[in-house]
Design goal:
alpha/beta, four-stranded antiparallel beta sheet, 14 strands
């Protein structure tokens, strides 16, 4: 009897360590065997097309046709994380942010669920996923902060929250200048060893370890990321910049575009603060026109290699947009 109790105790301890280690390595648990795509379709004039059915789409992975196992037509509900940059660089136009973000809520569907997250040197969940617009409006109105920009940790936090939203369609809408403090510090360290002549081509934004971790986790859940890029992160607006500053800001803006392009979203550049509300509304409208499809890849190898995705629409005059592929991990 004593031996049996000891054995059970050991099993519990080992299981506990395994659970902790799994949580530390990757807190997001999804069915990685399925690939999920959010697909936007427009006509030649850019008008969204929402009347297509499953038979209108053909999917290819590395040139091999795939069978669509699940199809959800627009406008099915989304779970959306609103990420608000409350770092020091946004302090002078907080009222613009609050009014514009509120317009985004107005444009969502009644069954869309929204979580509001602020980030600066901290990442704070202001409200968990809810369809109650009053709670979300209040969260936007009290968002506040200062200091550094913990953008990438906020994106990872948002993906973890979305992983608990089950099989719903998922998106992140992030308002930011794109200049993550830790990533910029890494860029600065690399550039400090170089001459001015070497700097323009030295940074390779796509090689960022954290960026690729975010993309991998968004792949696993089929999350579409929409960055709204604030003018404070525009390298062309820097006052009397050094070559190193230009290179770092260009890399940060390129990484925002990689988030959008890789996940099937769009990078919306805010040139003037009075454009912010309109761009938020455009993103909300885009979400309501997306189709969602899933397929089981015929290539079952989880070898970490890149798999290119191509979507074709049966009507040749229509244009589709989705993520470009994924790493088979």
């Amino acid at each position: 009897m004593l031996i049996r109790k000891v054995f059970v105790f050991i099993l519990i301890v080992v299981s506990g360590f395994a659970a902790v280690n799994a949580q530390d390595d990757d807190p997001i648990k999804v069915d990685s065997s399925l690939v999920r795509l959010n697909i936007g379709v427009v006509d030649q004039r850019g008008r969204p097309i929402t009347s297509l059915d499953k038979s209108s789409f053909s999917l290819y992975e590395d040139g091999v046709k795939q069978e669509i196992s699940s199809f959800v037509a627009a406008p099915a509900p989304f779970s959306v994380v609103m990420l608000l940059d409350m770092s020091g660089s946004t302090k002078s136009f907080r009222q613009n942010i609050q009014l514009s973000a509120s317009r985004f809520l107005d444009a969502l569907g009644p069954d869309d669920r929204v979580a509001v997250v602020e980030f600066y040197s901290k990442v704070n969940l202001l409200n968990d996923f809810t369809a109650n617009r009053r709670d979300a409006f209040h969260s936007i109105s009290v968002a506040n902060g200062a200091g550094e920009t913990d953008l990438y940790r906020a994106l990872l936090f948002s993906l973890e929250k979305l992983s608990k939203e089950g099989n719903r369609r998922k998106a992140i809408v992030v308002l930011t200048d794109g200049v993550d403090t830790d990533e910029q510090n890494s860029d600065r360290k690399l550039l400090s060893k170089l001459t001015d002549e070497q700097i323009p081509s030295a940074l390779k934004p796509e090689t960022s370890e954290t960026l690729n971790r975010i993309l991998s986790r968004s792949d696993a859940q089929g999350v579409t990321i929409y960055p709204l890029a604030l003018p404070t992160g525009d390298p062309a607006r820097l006052a009397d910049p050094t070559p190193r500053q230009i290179a770092m800001f260009k890399a940060a803006r390129t990484r925002l575009k990689l988030f959008a392009d890789h996940t099937g979203g769009t990078l919306n550049t805010i040139n003037r603060l009075d454009e912010m509300a309109a761009l938020y509304a455009i993103v909300a409208a885009d979400l309501r026109t997306l189709y969602t499809v899933e397929y089981q890849p015929t290539n079952e190898k989880r070898d970490g290699k890149w798999r290119a995705i191509k979507v074709e629409v049966s009507q040749p005059d229509l244009i589709s947009r989705t993520r470009q592929g994924y790493f088979a991990r």
